Amino acid sequence: MNILITGGAGFIGSNLALHLIDLGHEITVLDNLSPQIHGSNPEETSPLYRSIKDKVRFVAGTVCDDAAWHEVLPGQHAIVHLAAETGTGQSMYEIKRYVDINIGGTGLMLDLLANTDHQVKKVVVASSRSIYGEGKYFSETLGIVYPCARKESDMKAGNFDLMCAQSGEVLKLLATDEESKIHPSSVYGITKQNQEQMVLTVCKSLNIGAIALRYQNVYGPGQSLSNPYTGILSIFSTRIKNGNGINIFEDGKESRDFVYIDDIVRATTAALLADEVRDEVFGIGAGIATDVLTVAETLVRNYGVEVPITVTGAFRIGDIRHNFADLSKANRMLGFSPQVSFDEGIRNFSAWVDQQEVQVDTYDASIAEMSKRGLFK
How many domains, in total, are found in the chain? Predict the structure, then answer.
């Protein structure tokens, strides 16, 4: 097939492009080479871009540019729509940029699919676990519950766990499935929800097969080590390599589902090539919750660099407590199950980081920016 990958020079996109090329497909990449991800001079500062630039048809441009779409769309049989601004915290104050690119860019793509001649038969859109907000929980009193965002007053008092509204008991975490309540707690999450709903709704009306993949926390070699807004493994690694201590939010027991890049590529490829699967959403992760304190301690141990790890009790507005994926549907319909354990993946990631130039640590500046705007307490 001829496959267009928007955001194809990014972390997920570049790995996916190389894999699809190995399978014999022709790849076109549309990417604006954002300095936040690729640095000021991608030819020198972006190994992701360099890994694909001679193997794909590369078009520099934004998904918000009509002319760029008219250049890349003809002749394509499928689109993997990855291009988006990412970062929960940043989305809470760069609202227009997130809405313009994530929603506006997707709207432009769908408008062209609806109103121009093309050969596109499949669209896979990258959604996010952030659309759920908090994940799925169980209460002995109420049964299955989907808690709303935590109260700032509770977190200021050091009460970070989610409690049953009726009994006051600590809720039991369950795997989040595709039928779980959608109630995002950030602008980023809202835009990802909007993206997947638009793609599924419009593509169905056009008889284009569409799938939304709700990725959990993706990590692995090649991830940006200079972007202070996404990827705690990268953020922590850059701080450790600079000899800076790690400040853990809340009580360190907040957890995420960390899924290795190779597994994301496998899942995305399966969704793209499954002709019979359409109009569906899938949660894609490792299916295991790992707490943030464990991540920090593992990285410090892997790098052999002693830096202090401090559990601060501070918190960010919009952060969730827990979320990990129920993979039953992805396994049943896509044949997907993760192949890389967290221990193996973080060893691979740490070994790769050890070979990279140490990046400037801009994390404190990002925290100061959020504090100034009342989003970090």
Answer: 1
Q: Which two tokens stand for residue 155?
A: 């977190």
pTM over 0.70: yes
317 near 375, Cβ under 8 Å? yes
Average pLDDT value for residue range 29-36: 92
What CATH number does the domain containing 151 carry?
Answer: 3.40.50.720
pLDDT digits (tens, 9 = 90+) for 75-98: 999 999 999 998 888 899 999 999
Helix/strand/coil for 110:
helix
pLDDT recorded at residue 364 = 87
Q: Distance between CA 10 and CA 145 in Å, rounded?
A: 36
Residue 17 located in a structural domain: no
Q: Which two tokens stand for residue 30?
A: 């549309």
Sign of the torsion formed by the C-alpha atoms of 182, 185, 190 and 196: negative
Catalytic site residue from 49, 132, 188, 215: 188
Q: Note whether 229 and 87 are within 8 A (CB).
A: yes
Rounded to whole angstroms, the Cα distance separating 51 from 237 reads: 22
Establish whether 49 is a catalytic residue. Answer: no
